Amino acid sequence: MLDRLFKNFRKEEAPTKDENALPRAVAALLVEAARADEEYTDDERDLIVKLLRGEFDLTEEEAVELRREAEEAQAAANDLYGFSRVVKEELDREGKMQLIEAMWRVVLTDAERDPHEEMVIRRLVGLIHLEDRDSTEARRRAEK
Asked: Model pTM?
């Protein structure tokens, strides 16, 4: 009986870190930005794959699979919090800035700035503890 009682007080083993959490979160956020205007184009899909390949050193097939997994995860998610939490914990300031720039690149693929797309980026900027001026800087870099 005491064994059962003290079982709750024993330290459990620390959960193993999911090494794919960051790539999945980044991919899902890129998909979220692309889908925000309800027009998810082939150009946006292709750019997401290109960005994932470059950022995470993936093959074309691995990046396409990651994008597909991210599309499913993003569609099932109720908000950005789960994805943003991973980014906030795993990336330094420069990494966060690169993510915001990548999101702007995806959003600007069609050469139009949609208010819904901008809102997604604005919300994420706050969730990962950046500022509006950081987003503006990232957008300017993406526009070049």
From this structure: 0.86
